[in-house]
């Protein structure tokens, strides 16, 4: 196997992360109507996923550069597959279905958190692809999260439509096959070396840098902007407009994921030409656009305008997470895996706070 295989496996790992982050949200209405779980607790379920990922990021700060990438990456995929299987089993076996969902979410969230920490430094430390800048490569990597999210929406919606909501438990084990297969691939693919201790920029040095602190703030804002709309768009589309679940999933998270994927992919495939697009300017424009989309989604009396703004949010937030990661990698090239873990930690703080706050409101 070559590093090309490693790169493809890293791309697939972000599809796995999309599965564990979005499948439960697609089933919110099913959980609400069939398992009797109220809306506030559904928001807590989304928040729990990212809280566990946050704690995983925190634990990985001290570990990843010491043990290398392979073992934790394989473990991440095994836990993701196990958690998805438990999502189908525990709510039906336990007297408290919500407790079962929480236990399953905690397991697959550890896997998602490890993938989030490891995939970016793996791709960053691989030999550069000819004709593509590292910023573009990072955007392309993160685009696979979006394509994975879109695939989860479309395939899950199709299966629920064909099998009926009562067969929702079929979906998690079916999606568990993806991390199971990628775990085998990760176990054999060559991995880049981590940054040696004597060359790595210390976390203390990073945290003393105002530039790095600003990037952490950008990561938190990006996580909140992206995941709040992503997690609640299906519920919003169904409850606010009265459309069926299948239509709500396609118009809400489906279009959101499609536009976010197109934004990241377009930036990624431009290769060296993205140097003509200032990354900082693109991030500023993204933030302003997301503000406008959120305001329109929340305040527009026209359902079509609200859904359109919901979808356009995906395009606006497309560069936030990979863009902030690229800024840090360019400014601190010797940050090592610990730096990426801290970045993921900041992003997950925003990703955990945003959907939970929306559910509470």
Structural write-up:
The protein is 81% helix and 0% strand. It is globular and about 55 Å long. The chain has 361 residues and is mainly alpha-helical. The model has no long low-confidence stretch (mean pLDDT 86). α1 crosses α10 and α5 runs antiparallel to α8.
Helix tally? 15
Series of secondary-structure elements, N-terminal to C-terminal: HHHHHHHHHHHHHHH
**Low-confidence region ranges:** none
Roughly how many Å apart are the termini? 50 Å
Helicity, as a percent range: over 70%
Set down the secondary structure blueprint:
Blueprint: H1 3-26, H2 28-34, H3 39-60, H4 64-67, H5 70-93, H6 97-125, H7 134-163, H8 171-188, H9 203-207, H10 210-241, H11 245-269, H12 279-299, H13 303-316, H14 320-331, H15 336-360
Helix pairs in contact: 1-5, 1-6, 1-7, 1-8, 1-10, 3-6, 3-15, 5-6, 5-8, 6-7, 6-15, 7-11, 7-14, 10-11, 10-13, 10-14, 10-15, 11-13, 12-13, 12-14, 14-15
Briefly summarize what is shown.
This protein has 15 helices and no strands. The chain is mostly helical and 361 residues long. The radius of gyration is 19 Å and the shape is globular.
Question: Main attributes?
Answer:
15 helices, 361 residues, globular, mainly alpha
